[in-house]
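Q: Could you predict the 3D structure of F-box domain-containing protein?
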Amino acid sequence: MDTNQKRPKNRLITDIPEHILADSILSSYSVNEYYTYTQVCKRWSSVLRSDWLWKRHCEARGFHHSTESTPKTKRNCHSEGHRSTAVWRDIYRKRHSVEKRFSRGQYVERKRDSRSAPILDLKTCSASALAACRSGRILVYDLSGSGEPVGREWWTTVTKPKVELVRPLRTGEPFSVKPVAALTCAPLSEGYVGGGYADGSITIWRLGTREAVANWMGHTGGATTSICHVEGSKLSSAGSDGYCRVWDASAASKCVWSSPPPAWEGEDPSMRIKKQYTSISRLDAAIIIAGRKDSSWRAYDTRVGGRQTEVAKCVMKDWCMCVEADDQGSHTVRASDKSVKIFDIRRIASERGEPLQEWHRSSRLLTRFCSDGRYRLVSCGLDGRVLVSSLENDSKQASEVHSEDDYMLACAFDSSRLVVAGLRGKVDIFGFDD
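A: Sure. Here are the predicted structure tokens for F-box domain-containing protein:
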């Protein structure tokens, strides 16, 4: 052995260049671990203040830079001529806190104007758009007006609704300053609309007079997360209490069917979120489809009671945030996690739930999608994008019609208008290019 050969020196953490150390930290540790290790290592503490690290972390999570959401940089009083390096760290903190609230089902954002509170659901009906608002109101926007032309399409942002529907207080309910959030809305039979609330209640209004004709508690153990029209005076609802139910608004007892009770007993409390329903849709007068946070969607036969009421189940790759059934007799079910998947409900058991087609793939969850079943598909998601595709196009290409540096939570369209909304509370209306 050559005794003159120099032995390599032990590399200390202080010898590692900052950008290399930051890259290693980014790939090996979580943000919570960053803060733990800074308590015992000054070198880590200095790296944690590096805006380069936070920029890389934002890019890895899909948090994009936006002038509107970026805080103004300030001069560092300790270093003349240099700017503060907290820009990307502040972007991460803002977006990550919203993401954590979303995962817990808390759609809370501080707003000075209740009109700009987050919009959590959108539906279209009769040249109008219904919007379920975090402030507790169901807002009705007029879609019959014209917008400003932008290229080959027109686009406009509306802030003032045509009609505001307010949930009445139930008998014996004390007046509360804090409003109950409206989580979902839907057109029902001709001239009627419904809304579901965070306290589990369901309200039906006559749209022409804005009169509340029915108001009852639908899900006592959680929020009413989704509703849809079944037929006549019947509607179905899904809740965070782990139940799907069918209601007859004209009946005295209201509830005419309920899904089997979820098995809460003996389970870890953190597992309860997986039993929550996120969306519901009607396949026909007897079959309803519901999406859940346990990464599955299920089909129920409302003519059957007990455990036998579940007639189909399909496991997906992530939370099933939205479902839509084609009620034209085609047996088609569309469901979304990080993409929109199209299934034939008759082939679920024999083909292990493999989708027939897959559209609008994304790195983040798709919060909502809607389609007319044959021609057009629209989706929006946590990546802030709104995508539109033609179902007649075999290439499955999608056009990005809108993008924001924030979550897009709802979308809907009719024959000529596309409506989108999200956490910022503004409603954007687009005209389709005919």
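Q: Anything worth pointing out?
A: The chain has two domains: 11-61+87-104, 109-156+178-431.
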